[in-house]
Description:
The chain is an alpha+beta fold. About 20% of the residues lie in helices and about 25% in strands. The protein has a domain at about 70-180: Uridine Diphospho-n-acetylenolpyruvylglucosamine Reductase, domain 3, CATH 3.30.465.10. The chain has helices spanning about 25-35, 90-100, 115-120, 160, 195-205, 300-315, 350-365, 380-385, 390-400, 410-415, and strands spanning about 20, 40, 60-65, 70-75, 80-85, 100, 135-140, 150, 170-175, 180, 185-190, 210-215, 220-230, 240-245, 265-270, 290-295, 315-325, 340-345, 370. The strands form four sheets. Strands 11, 12, 13, 14, 15, 16, 17, 18 and 19 form a nine-stranded antiparallel beta sheet that branches. Flavin-adenine dinucleotide (FAD) binds near residues 116 and 170.
Amino acid sequence: xxxxxxxxxxxxxxxxxxxxxxxxxxxxxxxxxxxxxxxxxxxxxxxxxxxxxxxxxxxxxxxxxxxxxxxxxxxxxxxxxxxxxxxxxxxxxxxxxxxxxxxxxxxxxxxxxxxxxxxxxxxxxxxxxxxxxxxxxxxxxxxxxxxxxxxxxxxxxxxxxxxxxxxxxxxxxxxxxxxxxxxxxxxxxxxxxxxxxxxxxxxxxxxxxxxxxxxxxxxxxxxxxxxxxxxxxxxxxxxxxxxxxxxxxxxxxxxxxxxxxxxxxxxxxxxxxxxxxxxxxxxxxxxxxxxxxxxxxxxxxxxxxxxxxxxxxxxxxxxxxxxxxxxxxxxxxxxxxxxxxxxxxxxxxxxxxxxxxxxxxxxxxxxxxxxxxxxxxxxxxxxxxxxxxxxxxxxxxxxxxxxxxxxxxxxxxxxxxx
Length: 418
Ligand SMILES: Cc1cc2nc3c(=O)[nH]c(=O)nc-3n(C[C@H](O)[C@H](O)[C@H](O)COP(=O)(O)OP(=O)(O)OC[C@H]3O[C@@H](n4cnc5c(N)ncnc54)[C@H](O)[C@@H]3O)c2cc1C
């Protein structure tokens, strides 16, 4: 097959093989979907694999909704906002805040599309905070026949349709739960030793509304603790960790202008909950990523196993981030059924070397019940993945019913979902 687009994902490690069509209206999208034998929706392209692409046939179409306007319609009575599918979280957040409203949580970057993020179970952090999909009250989705269906909370198909990997259709709008706008302060601490973490992991991860722990699995332990709090507080005694004296990036040598304000200064939620500012490149920009989400009860076992792998990982690791996500009921959510610890890896951008270490990580973590983040790099196939998701059979049945001809299928789904 020829490379017809030469357009790449954000990380630059995947060149889309299928033709990209920029849709002009929902009606145009409906016509495209009804006519094309194979279709996938393209979000903001922040996933790291061929998940989004169609690589196994020549006549696939990737539909991009970037030319459609971002609209945010607030309904104060139901405390929800209806937003368009391709909208980036950062743009939605700006409009919501201006109207006096807020979302309950955000991922580390505001650049990602709402539809693409919830499709892969994207999450932020916080003991009480579910993944971003848990805020989705309903979606409008164009099915294989080109018709728009609405799937709402309370419908039998809702728990299978939000985190659905683009396999059920193209989402044109989502209704999100909102709350009155609020302020957050962000405080970074440095130097939490392994012993302190092991003895106090519950207390540390509960110490703020959203907590991220950064490590390179060396003897330095947790090098940075990023705490995002909705209440004012004096500096904490964080088991030996000290408040950082200056603004820090979690990646060595990366420019600190791209991170959101630290130092305990209260400010609007949308300018503190993400780690990165909308107007800058998030993270390093030159990287790959993986993440495994495991039952929180197994957190210390995972820490021990990863510390043992530390020297091997060091050759390709930029940094590792530990976050918590509360349990939910979405069938393909990485936090389905139990609270999880997310172990995220920011790698160097070298596929060969990164994919060479992934089997060792999966050998260590999958037996603990770890589920790979759908949008990032992993090697497990459907045989290893299916047992991790108690409702995988229900999702496959939903897919058979909604898309029996696999109009929204691709090689990635064949490999991972089966
Ligand atoms: C720098 C960086 C930081 C990140 N930080 C986090 C983080 O903090 N937490 C986290 O969990 N993840 C994080 N991720 C991963 C990222 O959130 C996911 O890969 C997410 O899916 C990206 O959304 P997207 O719009 O770019 O989706 P794409 O990569 O474009 O698509 C992903 C999937 O969504 C589907 N999709 C997209 N749009 C639609 C639509 N309209 N209708 C139906 N399906 C659709 C696609 O078909 C595909 O299956 C990060 C990624 C990067 C690059």
